[in-house]
Design a protein that fits this description.
This is Putative glyoxalase superfamily protein PhnB. The chain is built from two helices and eight strands. The model has no long low-confidence stretch (mean pLDDT 90).
Length: 134
C-alpha cells in the first residue's frame, strides 16, 4: 500500500468555529473550503484536518454522523510546557491539565468550540517521578 496523504475528517455542527480555532491556536491554514466543508493543512505536519458539517449527505457512513466519541486529535510538539502556557494565556479551554505518564508521555488536552478534543504531547524520559503542573 502506498499512502500519499493523511487526513482526519471530523463531523461538527459549526465547521467555521473549529476551523478558525485550529487556525488561531494550532497554526493551520486553509487548503480548501466549500459550504459545510473545510480542509486545513499545517506546514510542519503531514496530516490535514478536515471538518464536515453535521447533516451533510456526503458524510458516510451515516451511522457515524454527528459524533466522535473517544476521538482525540493528537500532535507531538517539542515544548509541551511552552505550548500549554501559550494556549492557556490565549484563553483556550483546557480539559485535561498538563501531566506526565510513567512511560514518558507529557501532555495536556484542550477542546475547540464544537467539543473536539486535541492533545499536545511531548515525549520525555520515562520516570514515575515526573511532576504534573496544574
Amino acid at each position: 500500500m502506498d499512502i500519499t496523504a493523511t487526513a482526519v475528517s471530523l463531523n461538527v455542527a459549526d465547521v467555521e468555529a473549529s476551523a478558525d480555532w485550529a487556525r488561531r491556536h494550532l497554526g493551520f491554514t486553509e487548503a480548501m473550503a466549500a459550504d459545510g466543508f473545510c480542509s486545513l493543512e499545517h506546514p510542519q505536519s503531514a496530516m490535514n484536518l478536515i471538518y464536515l458539517r453535521t447533516g451533510l449527505s456526503s458524510f458516510k457512513p451515516a451511522s457515524a454522523a454527528g459524533h466522535a466519541d473517544g476521538v482525540l486529535v493528537v500532535f507531538t510538539v517539542e515544548d509541551v510546557d511552552g505550548e500549554y502556557a501559550r494556549l492557556r494565556a490565549a484563553g483556550v479551554e483546557v480539559v485535561t491539565p498538563i501531566e506526565t505518564e510513567p512511560w514518558g508521555e507529557r501532555y495536556f488536552q484542550m477542546a475547540d468550540p464544537n467539543g473536539v478534543v486535541y492533545q499536545l504531547v511531548q515525549w520525555v524520559e520515562p520516570t514515575a517521578a515526573q511532576p504534573t503542573t496544574p
